[in-house]
Write a structure and sequence with these properties.
By secondary structure, this protein is α+β, with helices and mostly antiparallel strands. The chain contains five helices and 17 strands. Strands 1, 2, 3, 4, 5, 6, 14 and 16 form an eight-stranded mixed β-sheet that branches. The structure holds fe (ii) ion (FE2).
Amino acid sequence: MPALKTEPLSPAMGVRITGLDLHAASADLIGSLRTELLRHHLLVVAHQNLHREELQAFGCAWGELLTHPASAHAENPYVQILASRNGVRGRGYGAWHSDMSWHPTPPWITMLHARTLPSWGGDTGYANQHLAWQALDRAAKDRGRMFRRDLPDAEAIAGLDANHSGKRFGAKAPDSVHPVVRLHDESGSLALYVNPEFTSHIVGIEENAAKLMLYALWVHTTGLEFCYRHRWSPGDLAIWDNRSVMHTSILDYDEPRALTRVVVKGDAVLRGAPKAVA
Ligand SMILES: [Fe+2]
C-alpha cells in the first residue's frame, strides 16, 4: 500500500493528509486511507478539487451511497449540497449528532468537501465517542439498572436501546432503535451512540428519567478532551467514521458557505456489551 503523508490534528482524533489527488483513486490508496480512518476516525485530505460527480465516484469506492430526504429531489440526490447563502451567525451551535442515526443502517462514513467558505467561522466540531465511553465513570455505566431491573449489574447502560427520529425531515423518514453503546464492527471498540439532534428517548425508561440520563450523557460526550474543532480550508475533504465520532456545525458565520457531502451506507448498529438477563 502507498505510504501517506500525515500529520495529527489533535490528541483526540484525526490526521491531515497532503500530497494526494483523489481523482481516480486506486484501490490501494483507498485501502491505505481506510486503514488510517479506522485508526484515527477522521481524515482531512487537503487540496482537493472534486466536482459533484467526482465526489460521488470517490464515495462509491467505499461502499453504497445513501440519499437523504432533504436532497431527494435534487439534481443528484447522492451528493448533497450543504449551503447557506445568507449566513447564520448568532444562532449558536448546531446540535451534535452522528449522521442519519435515525436510519436503520446509518452511514458509517460521511465525506464533506469544502467548496465555498466564509472568511472566518463555520468550523465543524468532532467528538470521539470511544474516548467518551472509556472515560464514563463506573456509576454512570451501571446506572441503567436503576430503571431496568432486567439488565445485568455491570455496565447496564450497554443493555439499553434508544429511539432516533428522522421526522424532522418529513413523515416518510423513519425512526430507528439502536443500542446506547455500540460495538464498532471493524475495530471492536465500544462507543456511546446517542445524540441531541436525533435521539428522542430511551426505550423502556420513563420520559423524565430518560431525559436526565440523556442530558448527562450529552454533557459528558462532548467534553473538550474528546473533541477536535476543524477550521476548514478551501479544498479540504473530510472523511469521518460515524461509528466513532459525533459532529456539529458551528453556526457563527455571516457569509456564504457551501460544502458537498456524500454518505456511505453502514450496517445495523451492533450492541456494545451486556445484554438483558434472560
Ligand atoms: Fe451532520
